[in-house]
Amino acid sequence: MALRRSIKTQFGVLTVTEEAGAITRLSWGDALRQDSSDLLEDAVRQLAGFDTGALTEFTLPLRVEGSDFLVAVCDAIFAIPFGETRTYGDIAKELNAPAQAVGQACGQNPIPVIIPCHRVMGAKGLTGYSGAGGVETKIALLRHEGAAGLLI
């Protein structure tokens, strides 16, 4: 059974989903969910810390459900340090895959913010964002982190 807990942040209302002891989804929305578990409480605490700038690295059990390639792309994205960016091409080279496939997988990331796909840029700079608010949310997240190389 999936449990969900929401938190209001400067980036909107974020809702985390827990299934079988792991975070499996993060979504935006106005409907506040208040399910409770130790993991959800920890996730909300960590998201609040990220929101205030006190936390720069999430330490939650995550489970990305999808293809092996999606999992590999999400793992590569998760490894990008706070305040840094990579390009789709950088990740493509690391995974020996086409940059376009990396971009598509990045857009399918089920746990944005925690798996920081906002830190992935196009070869020429800023690209779209599949989170609520689109590219404006991506810019806000990157500014929040003081991301070097932010081209806007």
Automatic annotation (TrEMBL):
Domain of life: Bacteria
Pfam assignment, any one: DNA_binding_1
EC number, as in UniProt: 2.1.1.63
Span of domain Methylated-DNA-[protein]-cysteine S-methyltransferase DNA binding: 69-147
Keyword Signal assigned: no
Annotated CDD domains: ATase
GO biological process: DNA repair; methylation
Keyword terms of this UniProt record: DNA damage, DNA repair, Methyltransferase, Transferase
Protein name: methylated-DNA--[protein]-cysteine S-methyltransferase
Main EC class the enzyme belongs to: transferase
Recorded GO MF terms: methylated-DNA-[protein]-cysteine S-methyltransferase activity
Reactions mediated catalytically: a 6-O-methyl-2'-deoxyguanosine in DNA + L-cysteinyl-[protein] = S-methyl-L-cysteinyl-[protein] + a 2'-deoxyguanosine in DNA; a 4-O-methyl-thymidine in DNA + L-cysteinyl-[protein] = a thymidine in DNA + S-methyl-L-cysteinyl-[protein]
Membership in a protein family: Belongs to the MGMT family.
The UniProt record lists the keyword Transferase: yes
Gene3D superfamilies xrefs: Methylated DNA-protein cysteine methyltransferase domain (3.30.160.70), Winged helix-like DNA-binding domain superfamily/Winged helix DNA-binding domain (1.10.10.10)
